Amino acid sequence: MSTVLVVDDKEMMRDSVCSVLRRAGMTALAATNGAEALERVALQRPDAVVSDLKMPGMTGVELLAQVRKIDEELPVVLMTAFGSVQTAVEAMKLGAFDYLTKPFEGDELLICVKRAIQHAKLRRENAVLRAQGSQAEVEASGRIVTQGEAFGLDRLVGASPAMRSVKAQVQAVADSHGTVLIVGESGTGKEVVARAIHELSPRRTGPFLAVNCAALSETLLESELFGHEKGAFTGADKMRKGRFELAHGGTLLLDEVSEVSPAIQAKLLRVLQERAFERVGSSQTISIDVRVLATSNRDLPKAVAAGDFRQDLFFRLNVLPIHLPALCDKIEDVPVLAETFLGQIARREGRGRVRLEPAAVELLCGYEWPGNVRELQNVCERAVVLSASGSRHDDVVIRREMLEPWLAWQTKPVQRPAVVIEPAPRVEEPVAVAVGGPAVLEDGAITFAPGATTLDDMERNAIVRTLERYDGHRQKSADALGIGVRTLGIKLKKWKDERLVPEDL
Ligand SMILES: Nc1ncnc2c1ncn2[C@@H]1O[C@H](COP(=O)(O)OP(=O)(O)OP(=O)(O)O)[C@@H](O)[C@H]1O
Ligand SMILES: [Mg+2]
Q1: How many CB atoms neighbour CB 289 within 10 A?
Q2: What's this model's pTM, rounded to 2 decimal places?
Q3: How far is the CA of 180 from the centre of ligand 2 (A)?
Q4: What is the per-residue pLDDT across 252-293, written as a single tens digit (0 to 9) for each?
Q5: Residues 351-364: pLDDT tens digits?
Q6: Pocket, ligand 1, Cβ cutoff 6 A
Q7: How far apart are the CA of 348 and the centre of ligand 1, in A?
């Protein structure tokens, strides 16, 4: 339902405009002067303003200028007597949405107001999309976006008891307005859970925005969260809305909230308590309706004990806590997660069906996964990309040896009784680095030979295989391996000098 603020010093006009709007099912708020109107704009966030042009004190044009400072998109319709149409036209140049010449019919008013609201809605949606776009760029590293992305609980793959409990908690908190603190090691799916909560909540049609609190300097983060006025600091050449304002009616995820400075912690506390804040460089209080979700991969109670994090803020954030298990604590989910990722990646790469050979499943289930689900996803990505198949549409079979080079970072053997598939004995051996079977070079050919070799061999093997997969294209190979193309070049040159790789690579 739309809310319209009607501003006029004359009671009769104000009342009749309000009643036309109310009869059309809108909420009408009334203000008798510009100052009162501004207060209402900031606190009650109407969808449109209908204001008289001539009023004692602040005129409609002055009001328009002040409204613009609070909200760039809020449409203002001016009501004007026949003699002052010229002023109204001038006002449109200053950003008024439209004007109505008195006397006007109720229908005329409604058409104009509805058009104004629709127009502003589109502009807001565009602003949110822009904010989400810039966020997507930041996240582009590593996040695999697939067509027909899952929705709600379907995003959360896995049926282990730990995962079933997480899903039940997500479902349970979705309807509430309360702040959810999602904790878990890096790569355990905190952001996936946040999106699922938003999508299952009554706010699902509103925006979902995220701010990575660890990625920005204090000044940038402050303006990112709360916005700033024009001229608030050097470089602030335009008024800018913050994420709290853009997420109005939706959900805001404060990612890695443990990393924010004491000054911003104080500001966050206030938003959570009062749902109100001021833009940087402004004294105008703005109120919002936003649900806050937060994530942390640090132990927040410890940070509180150490004096790094405000206890009162912790309590505000921790209203509904959800703890995400490490992947090694839900190892029975590994096969289904791997299958899901392999399928998604194969589809994206235009490859055929992907199968994991049983020995490969065993290997994956025996690994410790320090990087959790994200690491598993990366391993799957590399396995598909590097699996050279005859034709692009052939089925891809992922064999144990194809995964081994990527699991080399495991430094100690895993002994976990809860594993569904018994880990292969080779993995159980307390090897220092390698888990066996990496590549050696024989007569210029790359093969897998049993027995552990060095980390260098494995690295060389991975690089050579990737280059083969991409027909020697260095940039593509470097991207697939997550290293710089220069690094790749330096390594290749060294290996060529040592005659460890073919000259023509
Ligand atoms: N249960 C799951 N089902 C499907 N995909 C998952 C699951 N958990 C995690 N993922 C995937 O793993 C990757 C990492 O997840 P996400 O970004 O949510 O982790 P995170 O906990 O926020 O990590 P970080 O602390 O590093 O930000 C993502 O690509 C996500 O899609
Ligand atoms: Mg995250």
Answers
A1: 13
A2: 0.67
A3: 14
A4: 999 999 999 999 999 999 999 999 999 999 998 999 999 999
A5: 888 889 999 999 99
A6: 143-144, 156-158, 184, 186-192, 295, 297, 373-374, 377
A7: 18
